[in-house]
Write a structure and sequence with these properties.
Elements lengths: L10 E15 L2 E2 L7 E9 L2 E6 L11 E8 L4 E14 L2 E7 L4 H25 L1
Amino acid sequence: MIFKRKEGFRFSFGEPIKAGFVVMIDGKPVGDGESRLACKVLDVSPRGMKMMTEVDLSNYINRILQLEVSFILDNVEIRGIGEIVWSKKFGSGYQYGIVFYNQPGVESLIISELKARRRKELLGSKSQG
């Protein structure tokens, strides 16, 4: 699949953010649906993210695969359901590009949480200077 980012911004983190995800096939969680697998968010935009995990998802390649990813940027937990649009082996783990399709609530929450996080970062750097 050819994928080109057409977004206004993408926010990268110096220190990746801890997150969790549930694998979903055909809209249903795999396994008990309660067990979250560990991952880290490397960057995020209102419509997607780049994440890293030790979990190899290539054995689901011929299925309709989605991930329900949950993470906290500032205070509020964000849960988005996305599709993997690219993947690559990276060190001992895997990186995945995730796109959140048609989830305006998730988009607006990501934007507001990024603004709040950035505000705190700026205030913290001013008080140290």
